[in-house]
Design a protein that fits this description.
The chain has 373 residues and is α/β, with parallel strands linked by helices. The chain has two domains: 48 residues; 266 residues, Aminopeptidase (3-Layer(aba) Sandwich), CATH 3.40.630.40. It has nine helices and eleven strands. The strands form two sheets. Strands 2-3-10-9-11-6-4-5 form an eight-stranded mixed β-sheet, sandwiched between helices. A three-stranded antiparallel β-sheet has the order 1-7-8. Helix 8 packs across helix 9. It starts with a helix and ends with a helix. The relative contact order is 0.16.
Amino acid sequence: MINLAVINLKDLIKYLVGLITTILVVVGLARYFSSIKEQASQIGEKVTSYSFITCLDEAIPAIRFTNHKEVVKDDRPIYEKILAMNLNMTTAMTEKNIVPEENPITVANDPNNEELKEAQTGLETKVVEEKNGANNKYTTNYNGVQIKNESKYNLTEDMLKPDIEVRNKNIMIYHTHTCESYTASPGYEYTATGNYRTTDKNFSVARVGTELERYLKNYGYNVIHDTTYHDYPSYTGSYDRSLKSIQTMLEKTPDTDIIFDVHRDAVGNGDTYGPTVMIGEEAVAQIMFVIGTDGGGLEHPNWEQNLKFAIKVVEKGNQMYPGLFKPIMVRNTRYNQQIAKGASIIEVGATANTLDQCLNSMKYFAKVLNEVI
C-alpha cells in the first residue's frame, strides 16, 4: 500500500508539471502572435485576413509548389524554381507590390507593324535545331502528331482520334501569366519586372495575344481578348484569378468552345532556349499545346475533347508549316481547361525567342486555325 501511494503521487506530480508546461506554452504563443499582430497593424497590414497557407506562400515561395493543386507548368529543377520565385517576390516588393496602372497595347507603335497580310502557304520550312535544346522528346506519335504524355493515362486510339467539331462563332484569348516576356531585341526593348517578365503589356504575352486577335478578326471571327494581370503582384493564385476572368467572359458569351490561354514557355535554359522555325525568310517562334487532364484528381470532363482539338490543329499545321508546332504536352494538372471542349494552353516561344518572332508565329497559327475551324 505504501509503494502504491508513492507511485500515485509521482504520477500526480508529472501530470501537474505537464499541465503547467502546456499553459506556459499556450500563453507564450498567444503573446507571440499578439505581438506579431500589433507589429503588422503598425505597418498597415491586415494580418487577420490571411490564412495560414497564404502566410506560408508569401514567406516561403517554394511552399507554393506544394500548397496548391493547380501548379504552374514548369520543368525546371526545384532550386531554379525557388530562385526564380524569390527574385520575382523581391522585385514585386521593390515595385511597392501594387498592380500597375493599365497600359493599353498600342499596336500602332510596334516598329514592325504593317497592314495585316494573310500568311502564305507552300513555303519552305526548317527548324532551327540549335535553339531547341532537348525539348522535342515525345512518347506518342499519332498520324505525325507528336505527343509527350506526362499524365497517368495510357493514350488510346479513341482518345487521340480528332473526331471533334467546335463552334467557331466566338474565340476567347486570355493569359494566366500575363507578365511573361521574351528576350529584348532592337525595337522591342522593355523594362523588366522580374526574370523574363514585364508589366508592360506591349512586350509581354498579352501583345502576342493581341496579334492573334488581329489575325483572327481579319478572318472574320469574333474574338474576346482579356489582358487582365493575373500573375502580378502575386504569382501565387494566378490560375484561380484567371479562372474567374474566363468565367465572367463565358457568362457574357456562353456559346464559346475555343479558348486559348496564351503563355511563353518557362525560363528553362534562359537565354539559350528559344524554339524557332524558319518559314520562308521569317524566323518564327514554335508553338506548343499544353493539355491538362483529371489525373491530378480535379474534375475535368472536357480533357479528351481538348486533346482531340489540339491534335486536329497540329495535324493540319504539320501539313501546312512543318515544324511550327512542338510536341503536344499532356499533363495531370487541368489548367482551367474544364471550362470548354476546345480549351488549351498555347506556349508561344520561350525565353530566348524575341517578341517579333512570336508575333510572326501568330500569323501562321491563325492561318492554320482558319483552315481547321
